[in-house]
Specification:
The protein has one domain: Beta Barrel (Barwin-like endoglucanases). It is globular and about 75 Å long. The chain is an alpha+beta fold and about 140 residues long. Strands 1-6-3-5-4-7 form a six-stranded mixed β-barrel. It has helices at about 5-25, 65-70, 115-125; strands at about 30-35, 45, 60-65, 80-85, 95-105, 115, 130-135. The termini are far apart.
Length: about 140
Protein backbone atom coordinates (compact mmCIF):
# COMPACT_ATOMS: atom_id res chain seq x y z
CA UNK A 1 0.00 0.00 0.00
CA UNK A 2 1.39 3.39 -0.93
CA UNK A 3 1.81 6.18 1.57
CA UNK A 4 -0.97 8.17 -0.11
CA UNK A 5 -3.45 5.29 0.14
CA UNK A 6 -2.44 4.62 3.76
CA UNK A 7 -3.06 8.26 4.69
CA UNK A 8 -6.35 8.23 2.83
CA UNK A 9 -7.42 5.05 4.63
CA UNK A 10 -6.42 6.49 8.04
CA UNK A 11 -8.28 9.73 7.33
CA UNK A 12 -11.40 7.80 6.33
CA UNK A 13 -11.17 5.64 9.47
CA UNK A 14 -10.75 8.73 11.64
CA UNK A 15 -13.78 10.45 10.05
CA UNK A 16 -15.88 7.32 10.43
CA UNK A 17 -14.92 7.03 14.10
CA UNK A 18 -15.64 10.73 14.69
CA UNK A 19 -19.08 10.35 13.10
CA UNK A 20 -19.93 7.28 15.19
CA UNK A 21 -18.83 8.98 18.39
CA UNK A 22 -20.71 12.19 17.58
CA UNK A 23 -23.96 10.27 17.17
CA UNK A 24 -23.44 8.15 20.28
CA UNK A 25 -22.15 10.74 22.73
CA UNK A 26 -24.79 13.52 22.82
CA UNK A 27 -26.80 11.84 25.57
CA UNK A 28 -23.92 12.37 27.95
CA UNK A 29 -23.55 16.02 27.01
CA UNK A 30 -25.97 17.88 29.20
CA UNK A 31 -26.37 19.46 32.58
CA UNK A 32 -27.25 17.25 35.50
CA UNK A 33 -30.25 18.01 37.68
CA UNK A 34 -33.33 16.65 39.39
CA UNK A 35 -36.90 16.20 38.28
CA UNK A 36 -39.89 15.55 40.50
CA UNK A 37 -43.38 14.19 39.97
CA UNK A 38 -45.66 17.23 40.30
CA UNK A 39 -49.37 17.94 40.30
CA UNK A 40 -49.68 21.70 39.75
CA UNK A 41 -51.82 23.58 42.24
CA UNK A 42 -53.13 27.09 41.51
CA UNK A 43 -52.00 28.38 44.89
CA UNK A 44 -48.33 27.39 44.53
CA UNK A 45 -47.71 27.54 40.79
CA UNK A 46 -46.82 30.67 38.88
CA UNK A 47 -47.84 30.18 35.25
CA UNK A 48 -46.39 31.63 32.07
CA UNK A 49 -49.30 33.60 30.68
CA UNK A 50 -52.68 34.05 32.29
CA UNK A 51 -54.58 30.82 31.99
CA UNK A 52 -53.43 27.31 32.93
CA UNK A 53 -55.84 25.99 30.29
CA UNK A 54 -53.25 27.08 27.70
CA UNK A 55 -51.32 23.86 28.31
CA UNK A 56 -50.06 22.75 24.91
CA UNK A 57 -51.98 19.81 23.53
CA UNK A 58 -49.83 16.94 22.36
CA UNK A 59 -46.67 18.39 23.95
CA UNK A 60 -44.90 17.43 27.12
CA UNK A 61 -44.54 20.33 29.47
CA UNK A 62 -42.81 21.09 32.72
CA UNK A 63 -42.69 23.56 35.54
CA UNK A 64 -39.28 24.58 36.84
CA UNK A 65 -37.64 25.23 40.17
CA UNK A 66 -36.24 28.52 41.36
CA UNK A 67 -32.80 28.17 39.75
CA UNK A 68 -34.27 27.44 36.32
CA UNK A 69 -37.10 30.00 36.65
CA UNK A 70 -34.75 32.97 36.33
CA UNK A 71 -37.42 35.56 37.24
CA UNK A 72 -39.72 34.29 34.50
CA UNK A 73 -37.13 34.22 31.71
CA UNK A 74 -37.65 30.45 31.46
CA UNK A 75 -41.20 30.81 30.15
CA UNK A 76 -41.75 28.88 26.93
CA UNK A 77 -38.16 27.59 26.83
CA UNK A 78 -37.82 24.04 25.64
CA UNK A 79 -35.46 21.48 27.12
CA UNK A 80 -34.46 17.99 26.06
CA UNK A 81 -34.59 15.96 29.26
CA UNK A 82 -33.72 12.32 29.91
CA UNK A 83 -33.67 10.15 33.00
CA UNK A 84 -30.21 9.34 34.33
CA UNK A 85 -31.08 7.11 37.30
CA UNK A 86 -30.64 3.80 35.48
CA UNK A 87 -32.92 0.76 35.30
CA UNK A 88 -35.81 0.66 37.71
CA UNK A 89 -36.55 4.38 37.80
CA UNK A 90 -35.86 5.29 34.16
CA UNK A 91 -38.22 4.15 31.45
CA UNK A 92 -36.40 1.45 29.49
CA UNK A 93 -34.96 2.63 26.19
CA UNK A 94 -36.32 6.15 26.49
CA UNK A 95 -34.80 8.84 24.35
CA UNK A 96 -34.58 12.48 25.43
CA UNK A 97 -38.01 14.10 25.58
CA UNK A 98 -38.59 17.77 24.73
CA UNK A 99 -40.43 19.68 27.46
CA UNK A 100 -41.81 23.22 27.27
CA UNK A 101 -41.65 25.37 30.43
CA UNK A 102 -45.11 26.56 31.50
CA UNK A 103 -44.38 27.98 34.92
CA UNK A 104 -42.65 28.02 38.30
CA UNK A 105 -43.27 25.32 40.91
CA UNK A 106 -42.83 27.30 44.11
CA UNK A 107 -43.73 24.43 46.42
CA UNK A 108 -41.01 21.95 45.41
CA UNK A 109 -37.61 23.01 46.74
CA UNK A 110 -34.32 21.99 45.16
CA UNK A 111 -35.68 20.69 41.88
CA UNK A 112 -34.86 21.72 38.33
CA UNK A 113 -37.96 20.29 36.66
CA UNK A 114 -41.39 19.62 38.16
CA UNK A 115 -43.05 17.22 35.74
CA UNK A 116 -46.82 16.64 35.64
CA UNK A 117 -47.85 12.95 35.59
CA UNK A 118 -47.90 12.47 31.79
CA UNK A 119 -44.57 14.25 31.34
CA UNK A 120 -42.95 12.34 34.22
CA UNK A 121 -44.20 9.08 32.73
CA UNK A 122 -42.56 9.91 29.39
CA UNK A 123 -39.06 9.44 30.88
CA UNK A 124 -39.46 7.56 34.17
CA UNK A 125 -41.46 4.87 35.88
CA UNK A 126 -44.12 6.30 38.17
CA UNK A 127 -42.84 4.61 41.31
CA UNK A 128 -40.16 7.24 41.81
CA UNK A 129 -41.10 10.73 42.91
CA UNK A 130 -37.67 12.30 42.27
CA UNK A 131 -35.16 11.30 39.64
CA UNK A 132 -31.76 12.41 38.42
CA UNK A 133 -31.91 13.83 34.90
CA UNK A 134 -29.65 15.18 32.21
CA UNK A 135 -30.92 18.12 30.18
CA UNK A 136 -30.00 20.63 27.54
CA UNK A 137 -31.78 23.62 26.09
Amino acid sequence: MTTGRLLQSCAFSFLLLAFVLSTAVPLSLGDSGTAAYYEPSPSSTQYCGDVPSQFPKGKNFTFVGEDQWDSGEACWREYDVWCDDGPGLCKAGSDPVRFMVLGFAADIPEVDFALPPVSFGAIANPRGDRITVQYRE
